[in-house]
Amino acid sequence: MFVKKKVNLKDLVKEKYSLIATQDKSQNESSCCGATGCCGVDYTIFSENYENLNGYNPDADLGLGCGLPTEFAKIKEGDTVVDLGSGAGNDCFIARAITGESGRVIGIDMTEEMIKKAKENTKKLEFKNVKFRLGDIERMPLTSNIADVVVSNCVLNLVPDKVKAFNEVYRILKPGGHLSVSDVVIEGILPTSIKEEAELYAGCVSGAIQINEYLKIMADSGLKNINIQKKKSINIPDEILLKYMDNKQLEEYKSSSTGIFSITVYAEKPIKCCSDCDC
Predict the structure, then answer these.
(1) Domain-wise residue ranges, the chain
(2) Tens of pLDDT along 153-177?
(3) For residues 80, 95, 162 and 195, what is the CA-based torsion angle, rounded to 10 degrees?
(4) 2-268 — its CATH code?
(5) How far apart are CA 190 and CA 204, in angstroms?
(6) Residue 19, strand partner residues
């Protein structure tokens, strides 16, 4: 039963993002969740402005992120960068502006419509070292130890099995490589009416887990030197929350210590020492 629920949630997210891929940023911002049919949370509540970053391309910006991970990712010229949940290519093109022609950028997304849009954007930009692959973050279509840097923007919280996802991140990182991911997390106990609402899951809230659990999953995967680079409170308007709770529940929720946050987290894959090394 649990497995079935995970599959259904993943299918729901894929369906919503497939719809979003058919619209531009202005359409997404004027519609609920950026797709036909209201799912309860407008993605622009979470998103941040990319327009001043080098490499920004408006055709690739669908307003879906919850941070600016490439700004914190310590990407260097010549790096191989992997973007998880790459959408229309926004973070990939920002990363490419830093890696330059000697680098390599790979975007992974499970939505065929997003991959198609990203490839169209890449063709227009005439980039030869930016590639997009259709695949699942829980089982990435990449060889081990390929990435100097992994980035992701408001995607891993939507993955049902976060343990598998971070184990995969660890696998594809080179020893000494690192990640910077922006995501949505929770502090305190989120009301059941929100947590269990599948439509809200696709809007980035109900897929989120406790911040301490999130960081523990990262640590358990083998990642080290984990630190939060940025933390921002997400304030969801009352009119949206009232779709999932009554007035009394809303007041109790607002007066509690519970909060929804966007965080950007850094972590490294350690370099393993050989038995004869003094590390």
Answers:
(1) 2-268
(2) 988 888 889 999 999 999 999 999 9
(3) 180
(4) 3.40.50.150
(5) 13
(6) none
The residue-averaged pLDDT of 206-213 equals 85
Q: Give this prediction's pTM.
A: 0.81
Q: Which residues pair with 109 in a beta bridge?
A: 134
Alpha-carbon distance of 171 to 68, in angstroms, equals 24
Contacts of 24 (CB under 8 A, 6+ apart): 59, 62
**Is-contact 241 84, C-beta < 8 A?**
no
If phi over 0 gives left and psi between -120 and 50 gives alpha, with beta otherwise, what is residue 33? Answer: left
Q: How far apart are CA 131 and CA 96, in angstroms?
A: 11
> Roughly what angle, to the nearest 10 degrees, separates helices 112-125 and 90-99?
40
First vs last C-alpha separation in the chain: 47
Structure tokens at 200: 């809200």
